[in-house]
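Action item from last meeting closed. Structure (182 res):
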């Protein structure tokens, strides 16, 4: 006998197969959407974390720029102070120069043979005016001046004979270039 199955088992199987495919496809789609969503959230969190780090770095940069500016100000102040100290040291070194120069000049003047009327210092130039008994004494005084430690060079500007109370004397004017810082 022939059996005929009139139940729609193939249609039922097809429906189940289609249901299974729909479930698999929708599950895969749902899983894909979940993966995309979690990737999106992770990237957004990473971006916000990086933006936060950038803001912190910029704040640090502002603080460091201020410190660099302060350091530059300190360097400028230090340089100014060093320049002022250098000027003070130069003044200290040259403070006793006029005293030593006049003392040495006094030692070079031959007593009773030469008289100084005027000594004037202008910068590095020294102008000496006076009277000598004769040209020989004046020449000896000039040689002694050239050997002096404070004089670089000596020049005779004027030497003329003058009559003082019946005595003939040599009136002279010398210019000297001095050495500073001795």
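Sequence:
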């Amino acid at each position: 006998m022939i059996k005929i199955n009139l139940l729609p088992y193939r249609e039922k199987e097809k429906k189940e197969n289609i249901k299974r495919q729909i479930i698999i496809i929708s599950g895969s789609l749902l899983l894909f959407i979940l993966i995309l969503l979690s990737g999106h959230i992770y990237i957004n969190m990473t971006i916000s974390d990086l933006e936060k780090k950038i803001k912190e770095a910029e704040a640090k940069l502002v603080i460091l720029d201020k410190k660099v500016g302060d350091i530059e100000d300190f360097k400028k102040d230090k340089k100014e102070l060093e320049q002022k100290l250098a000027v003070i040291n130069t003044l200290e070194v040259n403070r006793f120069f006029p005293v030593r120069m006049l003392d040495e000049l006094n030692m070079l003047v031959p007593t009773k043979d030469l008289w100084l009327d005027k000594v004037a210092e202008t910068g590095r130039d020294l102008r000496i005016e006076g009277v000598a008994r004769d040209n020989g004494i004046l020449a000896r005084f000039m040689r002694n001046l050239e050997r002096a430690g404070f004089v670089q060079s000596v020049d005779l500007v004027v030497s003329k004979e003058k009559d003082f109370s019946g005595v003939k004397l040599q009136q002279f004017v010398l210019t000297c270039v001095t050495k500073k810082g001795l």
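Note appended to the action item: The chain has a mean pLDDT of 88.
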